Amino acid sequence: MRVMSVLCRCCKVIMLWFGYNGFRSLWDWIVRHRNPLLVLLFPLVVFRYLTYSKKDGNESETSDDNTRPPKNSLDDEERGISPGQKRPSEEGGVSVSKRARSNQEDFQNDRFEIVDENASMVHSNESDIRTENEVDEGKKLTGPEEEFDSREYRVHTTDEFYCDYDSTWETDPNEESPPSRIRQTTNSNHYMFSRFERAARDMQNYRHDYPNQIKTQHRKKNTNENKPNLNFYLGKKRSVPDGVYITDIHEKWYGDYERLEYVHTYIQWLFPLQEPGVNYEASTLTKEEITDFLNHSIAKENLLKSYKLMLDFYGIVLCDEKTGEVRRAEHWEERFHNLNSHTHNNLRITRILKCLGTLGYPHYQAPLVHFFLEETLVNRQLPNIRDSVLSYFLFAVLDKTQRRNLIRYAYLNYEPKDEFVWCPKKIQKLWSMQSKAAKEEAADSLGSQKDTLISDSEAQEEENLSADESCNSAESHEDEETFSHNED
């Protein structure tokens, strides 16, 4: 029991630093080394960890409170709720553990206090840092945006498949939600929706620019030595532990698919984020680095080269550098097979999408996600990455209007539709009605076109028939004249 307790605490450390991705990476490592003892021990430790956590009487500790956003943190910011106020759900008597509540209040107080004191130091060029709110703010409502903001698209916390960590469908920040949350998911969809909720928590943290990490980043000195990611992209620093410059990776690693597949330490250098990864020797991205990165044309050009490098590795080519449009490469079949059989690349693609949104290429996100939606749902390729496309790739898109359009595209092409859990059921029904009405309208239009063609053909036949009759009467008249002349 003592050993199991120690192992459970190790699991807590993994969840603290890496979340569920840490477990997945650990499992991949165990499978690669083919150690039967570890293969048997791993599930037992995870099971014991889950039961061990439940005995504490606290909430499930999938990740530390200080490394993930609290539930409905987005809702609170949009509704203007101050740290000291209670949410409607708390006033309604929803049970929350004392430890979680105190941690949340401490975090909020620390966060606002630090932001007020050091806002000018952190964001000297704050307008360049792209978050979900900044992408959507000030945008003129035209076309689909006006449709999505209509009353029909307003959802409540009691709607089926409503996700606490997804703000995609929130349109009115001043509208109060019901005091309690009642889930109505069916048993068959419970696992898929739970998996989506776990992913949504991570993606919301990214879309809101990792608000919980402001406190720790202020402790670091703003010196050039503390900008390893920027220096690497400017060609001033080698990656660790591989010891290569950015130009070497672009020139010597391009097309070396064996190396790109089985070396796992370079991806965090090519696409740095404000969250840790598997390579503990790589540094997380800081706010100062982001600001400086966006002001360096060389760094942004090198990031574009890194993006093209990985697209080629996945069998994709960038068609338009201005719009970010992508298509299949000539060698797509071979690379699709590798992508479908090595699912750790799902984590890499998620990282790439996040990095594009952070470091100056947010307009590249939607085209790449649309490509994967089309390949998985329409062309029926890459079945092993479909769930990651829907739960992670799609919700990495910062632009809310683009994200909504992508979800609608996914729903209309997803089968069976009763298993779709990535947006509230209310909106799914609305889209089904719209799709049905569009099909009926198209059928009516096609029927009217057929009627028009039939009437035109009938009129043409009548015209031809009358012409034939006139010709026949003329011929008979000529025959009569000839006969009478012969008699004379």
From TrEMBL:
InterPro entries: OGF_rcpt, OGFr
Region of interest (Disordered), ranges: 56-150, 441-488
Polar residues composition-biased segments: 446-457
Pfam families the record matches: OGFr_N
GO CC field: membrane
Domain Opioid growth factor receptor (OGFr) conserved: 224-426
Biased composition (Basic and acidic residues): 102-114, 125-143
GO MF entries: opioid growth factor receptor activity
Family listed: Belongs to the opioid growth factor receptor family.
Protein's name according to its UniProt entry: Opioid growth factor receptor (OGFr) conserved domain-containing protein
Source organism of the structure: Oreochromis aureus (Israeli tilapia)
Higher taxonomy: Eukaryota, Metazoa, Chordata, Craniata, Vertebrata
Gene of this entry: LOC116314906
